Amino acid sequence: MLHDRILVKLDDEAAERRSASGIVIPATAQMGKRLAWADVVATGPNVRQVSNGDKVLFDPEDRHEVEISAQSYILLRERDIHAVAEPDSADIVTGLYL
């Protein structure tokens, strides 16, 4: 990766969603402007806020798709990312409270 580019792979969960009442909404259903989550696969040397393995939120309309070894990836700039998800806190030990 060069400069501030980030290579991400869409979440498998992004294919279909469930409504609050449990109805499955297929990926082909058109919705208003909606942001998408993806996992970071690779980052360029000038990327400062994101690292490999992070889960990022971005606008699907601002993407460039690329295929590498029969896998589909999305190429983004660091400025196109809206948020980075905090890792699960299950691995973090807070200590004992007395």
From TrEMBL:
This is GroES family chaperonin. Keywords: Chaperone. It comes from Micrococcoides hystricis. Belongs to the GroES chaperonin family. Gene3D superfamilies: GroES chaperonin. Pfam families: Cpn10 (PF00166). It comes from the Bacteria. InterPro entries: Chaperonin_GroES, Chaperonin_GroES_sf, GroES-like_sf.
